[in-house]
Design brief:
This protein has five helices and ten strands. It is globular. The strands form two sheets. It has a five-stranded mixed beta sheet with strand order 1-5-4-3-2. Helices cover 19% and strands 29% of the residues. Helix 3 runs parallel beside helix 4.
Length: 260
């Protein structure tokens, strides 16, 4: 049984609903209505990076940057949100699924796994955001974007956007080729002066040594055995800290920040 729009809809702005192409639609159920309220009520802190609307109008895909994530009560919260909206034109209802993720490639990959074409979810060539600093960064981002949805299991992550801009992600790589070093760390550094970012990957045989490196940061990321020989590891990063006691990113609603 379809539910009518709830009182939360009265808080939405017409331009917000138009942005998500939901004018005239009601939430499929109360849970969708409750969770999606964040996207309309806090739309002033959500900045679109990528948007794709399916030609038939039934689905839309978004990657959004949350500028209020730094104010989250949990330090290190991811600042990127992947959002998938599904519409039923016959019943005029919609569903919405979303996930907070620490790296753009992970957000794109989440949408790709939900049916968004790869080319449609790439950043446009003329985008104003930082660009890969080198070939290795571009190579790693491409692999993350196009990998199978079940390959990388995110165990934890930490985003720092105070004095420096970094994001660190601890994953388990389920690809057979990585079975000898399944625990991977992806570390991204952003350089606002050059308007670029670098992404590097480290690999370990067990989670204990991986988390020990994250705690100590006493050397460069140990490059995976399958990494191209000429690739150089990133220098030690000391700003971000990962705590395995904190669970990884969960579905929305995200932490609240400044809103209208």
């Amino acid at each position: 049984m379809f539910l009518p729009a709830t009182e939360l809809s009265e808080l939405y702005f017409d331009d917000d609903l138009a942005h998500y192409r939901l004018a005239g639609y009601d939430a499929r159920d109360e849970y969708t209505e409750r969770d999606f309220a964040f996207f309309c009520m806090d739309s002033d802190v959500l900045h679109p990076l990528v948007i794709h609307h399916a030609p038939d109008g039934r689905q839309s895909y978004f990657v959004l940057a949350d500028s209020a994530a730094t104010y989250a009560p949990c330090p290190g919260a991811a600042a990127l949100i992947a959002l998938h909206v599904t519409r039923d034109p016959d019943s005029r209802t919609y569903r919405a699924a979303s996930e907070r993720l620490p790296l753009l490639s992970f957000a794109q990959r989440w949408l790709f796994a939900r049916g968004c074409p790869v080319e449609a979810i790439r950043m446009p060539a003329d985008h104003p955001f930082t660009k890969p600093e080198d070939a290795l960064t571009a190579q790693l981002e491409e692999r993350l974007l196009t990998s199978a949805s079940q390959r990388y299991e995110v165990l934890d992550h930490y985003t720092n956007d105070h004095r420096v801009l970094t994001a660190t992600v601890l994953v388990r790589d389920h690809d057979p080729g990585s079975q000898h070093q399944p625990f991977r760390v992806f570390h991204e550094d952003t350089n606002l002066e050059s308007h670029t970012h670098t992404l590097r990957e480290g690999a370990w045989a067990d989670i204990a040594t991986a988390t020990q490196w994250l705690t100590d940061r006493d050397g460069p990321l140990p490059a995976p055995r399958d990494q191209i020989p000429q690739a150089r590891a990133a220098p030690p990063a000391t700003a971000a800290r990962v705590s395995l006691g904190r669970p990884p990113s969960n579905p929305l609603p995200p932490p609240s920040g400044p809103s209208r």
